[in-house]
Amino acid sequence: MTDILPATCYLINYYLGNKFIKQCNKGFRSGYIFSIILIFSVYTQTVGAFGSSPGRDWDSIPIPTNHAAYEYRFWELKDTQIARHTNALFHKIIKPPIDNEFYVQGLSGVIKQVLDEKNQPINSLISVGIGSEKIFKAELENTGVSRWFGYESALKKGEVRVRCQFFDKNNQLVKEVRLYVSGTPKQYETTNAIASILSPDEPGTYKLIFDLIAEGVNEFPKNSDVEYSFITVIVEDNRQFAQEIQIMEPFKSGKSGETVKIPLIVKNTSNFVWKNAGTNPVNLSYHWLDDNGKVIVFDGERTPLPGSLPVRGLIKLNATLKLPDNPGKYTLVLTMVKEYVAWFNDKNAKPLEIPVEIISR
User: Rounded to an integer, what distance in angstroms lies between the CA atom of residue 284 and that of residue 360?
Assistant: First the structure.
């Protein structure tokens, strides 16, 4: 938008000079309007170029603008993209005291309450689905002598945030996210933090611990008196295993014992992300059935995903297959498998079945 403002200035200048100014005839100069818009254009391009990081995070922090309930952010004048870029540039020129020893020692605060998106207090136990999205809000108080810098400050290092950590039953950290603090509160002033959080990808019982940190600088002193320091989260297994697998080239026959590759298009029609790493990755595999429908090979070769595949995501794969050793007519059953959890076709997900004739070498 800012790139077309100079040309827009000339057009507005022409219009005002030939229409509005002639009618008013009060000595007003259209050049004033042109100058104002030109200055604004240069200003926005300057802060955009030199203050772009992390000001460019405006559309996702604290809540993505594509979230239906938070589209109002487009019209919120107190926190705009230009304001974020301006703050980022300002703090590049005038460094905040985030590395000062006394500033770090003066950081302190409490999490007074944790709320949901309807501003209702969240109990100490909640239940959610796998990978489900939930809005968390936190009411905070700055109890230290150092001023906080919130997300509008467009800092990365030194920005105060609420750290949210999911720990499993073995007390292992499985997920870490942030709530974004608003404003620049001084001592004894209150503020809030908010973010949209996705629950863990595996079912189970987790402890969600909240604490305050200044990113890249220091953790806040622990306060054992904080009532909402953690929440127990039960992640229920609401996964729907679904898949769409299409073959890109005909595959009707092959030689016994050979290893071949066939091109496929795979679509994630499940309600959860297919992770390609971790303890339970999702891979492409297959079964071989003989002419009577008997399983000859159950645990086929694995073809890994090159990256995690989001819901409704598409990807091209070259599936690795080892053909049966004996000649005959077979059925190739292609399906996804979540390792150590389930084969997708065992969860009523439709596999791709292809009749294949195996011939002698």
Answer: 27
Kindly write down the DSSP assignment for every residue of 290-341, as one continuous string.
Answer: -TTS-EEESSPPPEE-SS-B-TT-EEEEEEEEE--SS-EEEEEEEEEEETTT
- What pTM was computed for the model? 0.69
Structural domain range at position 332:
243-359
For residues 313 and 252, state if they share a domain: yes
3-state secondary structure of 130: coil
Closest listed residue to residue 257, CA positions, set 339, 327, 337: 327
In total, how many domains does the chain have?
3
361 residues of the chain, pLDDT tens digit each: 445 555 565 566 556 556 555 555 544 555 666 677 667 777 776 766 666 666 557 777 888 777 767 776 777 777 777 788 888 888 888 888 888 888 999 999 999 999 988 889 987 889 988 878 889 999 999 999 999 999 988 887 899 999 999 999 999 999 999 999 999 999 999 999 999 898 888 889 999 999 999 998 888 876 544 445 789 999 998 889 999 999 999 999 999 999 999 999 999 999 888 989 888 899 999 999 999 999 999 999 999 999 999 889 999 999 999 999 999 999 999 999 999 999 999 999 999 999 999 998 8
Residue bearing tokens 């002639």: 22
Q: Looking at the chain, which runs of residues are DSSP E strands? A: 109-115, 125-129, 133-142, 160-167, 173-181, 190-198, 204-214, 218-219, 230-236, 243-247, 253-255, 259-268, 282-289, 295-297, 303-304, 314-322, 328-338, 342-343, 352-359
- Residue ending a domain, choose from 49, 74, 93: 93
CA angle 41, 47, 53 (to 5 degrees): 140
Tokens in use for 158?
């030194």
Question: Is residue 174 within 8 Å of 200, Cβ to Cβ?
Answer: yes
Nearest-angstrom CA–CA distance, 271 and 131: 9
Cα 136 to Cα 180: distance, rounded to the nearest angstrom: 10
Strands 125-129 and 230-236: parallel
Question: Is residue 18 located within the same domain as residue 82?
Answer: yes
Q: Is the peptide bond before 54 cis (omega within 30 degrees of 0)?
A: yes
| Contact yes or no for 207/233 (Cβ under 8 A) | yes
